[in-house]
Amino acid sequence: MRAVAVAFALLLSAPPTARRTDSPLDHLPANVEVLTRFGERADFSPDNRRVAFMAKSFGDAFVIDLETRAIRCLTCGVPGAAFLRVMHLPSADFLLIGPEHFLDLGRSRGRDNELWFLASRPGSRPVRLGRRMSEGAAISKRSTRIAFSVGHAQDPAVPEGQTRLVVADLDLSSERPALRDERVAFTSDGPGCSLEAQDFFDEDRKLTYSCYEPGGRSSAWTIDLATGERVNQSAAIGYYNEVEGIFPGGQHACVESDHQSRAFGDPASFRNIDIWKLRLDGTGRDFARLTTFNDHEGWKASNPVVSTDGRLMAFQVARTADEAGVGYGILLLHLEREAAP
Q: In this structure, which of 70, 119, 205, 244 has its CB flanked by the most CB atoms within 10 Å?
């Protein structure tokens, strides 16, 4: 347990008042290793033996075997593949997210973003699920349930400025996969909160999601899908906090946060972020920093996911000048190892 405590207390001393000018990849802690030299938006397989990831935004999806480090392309047979995300389903198949074709950043990432099913069989082609949606999706680790957000750009029936948090079931019983039993879990009040689903927890009874706010801010929320009770888990922290991968047991979640950038005098933004671990108890007091990439000028760590056995966190190295989600390689943080060099 001491090793676990040390890993979660990784470099918790106050950051310097001026950022370093070297690369964080040249000074990795002993519990962090480089998995790939390219790629972004990692996702663990149900058995934690593989990691799926995107080569780049609006590109191809890949998967790497954690033991052999063999890499296989999942979508290289799709001409002009323009996907943004790849995620494992409990069936070991994949959910892809992205437009059919790339037009431009605004329309392709917003209006034309949609869900696709990809069977795990080599040579399979993506199957459109007929649902446009915003940003990413939450996928149950124990059932075919998924959640995603929908705004006016994806569905004109949604009033402008609002977003809906939608829960649905992915039906794989027939030859053509389809979404069934769509229901709205929550609708935002207006443009002051744009929603993005992240993770199910508590046996799919609850969901984590982010609320993107004006002024470069974001907050990390949970919702009880049965009662509708919502809790702003980062209210006491403020500024930019985007919830990411859930830890086993659902008591903690990773958060992309700019909390450390207060020491540098930065405004609230998704650009100067690092990865933190937040206890989901509503207080915001149990908030521990896990990476220090943003202590280096122009760098950040982002898009963390945690293996279901709690041993590994996969994340990406990124640059502060780029759009959210852009990455330059996948890294693994061994949560049970000590962080000292």
A: 244
pLDDT digits (tens, 9 = 90+) for 76-109: 999 999 999 999 999 999 999 999 999 999 999 9
Q: Which residue has the tokens 């229901």?
A: 183
* pLDDT for the residue 17: 74
Contact by Cβ (8 Å): 115, 129: yes
Label each residue of 264-320 as H, E or C. Answer: HCCCCCCCCCEEEEEECCCCCCCEEECCCHHHECCEEEEEEEECCCCCEEEEEEEEC
User: What is the average per-residue pLDDT within 5-15?
Assistant: 44
Strand ordering across the sheet containing 71-73 = 40-44, 50-54, 61-65, 71-73
Q: Is 23 left (phi over 0), alpha (psi -120 to 50) or beta?
A: beta
Q: What is the pLDDT of residues 47-74, one digit of tens each?
A: 999 999 999 999 999 999 999 999 999 9
Cα(232)–Cα(222) distance, integer angstroms: 7
CA dihedral 222, 224, 225, 229 (to 10 degrees): -100
Q: Please list the residues that pair with 93 across neighbouring strands.
A: none
Q: What tokens were used for 173?
A: 């019983």
pLDDT at 10 over 90: no
pTM: 0.93
Is the CB of residue 180 less than 8 Å from the CB of residue 169? yes
Angstrom distance (rounded) from CA 332 to CA 316:
9
DSSP state letter for 3: H
Q: Is it the case that residue 26 has pLDDT exceeding 70?
A: yes
